[in-house]
Design brief:
alpha/beta, single chain, 8-stranded parallel barrel, 12 helices
């Protein structure tokens, strides 16, 4: 009898460690390429982009191969959608636009079997060969809620009281839009709102997450952010720009 697959990213968070999460993933080939580089988790993008249910299964299998936790962003806080996403092999979900305690409760309970929630009673790919899957899956399933609107930060105290949420992720881009600074996630007012939210999350003994880059990763880690998500696209863009510039100005 097989044992349930351990969500190593969730395990590290429980131990108080930082985890690295790579995003911008829309194919299993990209996951296979990035897999050997050592990221703890892969943020599979199903809110934006072309990923369908067949592709999602292949992408979560690729994550399993490289021992990365597969964490999938769904496009709405819908119990049926969350259930199917987990059935396709995801080890966690990212739920967008969680602006209230009630929305946070729905996200968490949709991902958990009883007695913690009401996830539909079908195990999917991660359950194959695991005899006690329904009794152990809750411990390995990660729940990330996105705080990406002013309303979410206004209600943050209540949202933080919801149990069974692994990460409270402050999302800069959408937050900046709702603050009146669309396209300017680096605006001082936005950065202050992010810092204030992180301080409140960590002060409540919860795990904070946010989008980081090479320039601010250390600063956010020092502020207590444990869930450090970044995209590989920026590295490609930077390298490509340098290559093209050098090619146009040969020495």
């Amino acid at each position: 009898m097989a044992s349930i697959r351990v969500n190593k990213a969730k395990q590290k968070l429980r131990n108080g460690e930082v985890i690295t999460v790579i995003s911008g993933l829309q194919s299993s080939d990209i996951i296979d390429f990035l897999g050997p580089m050592g990221f703890d988790a892969a943020w599979i993008e199903c809110e934006h982009g072309p990923v369908d249910w067949d592709a999602l299964g292949d992408m979560t299998r690729a994550c399993d191969l490289w021992e990365m936790a597969s964490i999938t962003r769904v496009n709405s806080n819908d119990p049926g959608l969350i259930t199917r996403t987990l059935d396709r092999g995801s080890m966690g979900i990212v739920v967008p636009h969680v602006n209230s305690r009630e929305a946070a409760e729905q996200a968490a309970q949709s991902a958990k079997y009883a007695p913690l929630g009401y996830r539909g009673m079908f195990g999917g790919r991660q359950s194959f060969g695991v005899g006690d899957y329904f009794h152990r899956a809750n411990d390995q399933t990660m729940v990330v809620v996105l705080l990406e609107e002013v309303e979410a930060l206004a209600n943050l105290d209540e949202v933080l009281t919801v149990p069974d949420i692994d990460v409270f992720f402050v999302a800069p881009s959408d937050l900046s839009q709702t603050m009146g600074h669309i396209g300017d996630a680096g605006h001082p007012e936005v950065l202050k709102a992010i810092d204030d939210a992180i301080a409140k999350i960590t002060g409540a003994g919860k795990v904070a997450g946010t989008l980081v880059n090479d320039g601010n990763l250390e600063a956010y880690a020092q502020k207590g952010v444990q869930f450090l998500m970044t995209s590989w696209n920026a590295w490609v863009a930077k390298g490509a720009a340098e290559f093209v510039q050098k090619a146009g100005n040969p020495r």
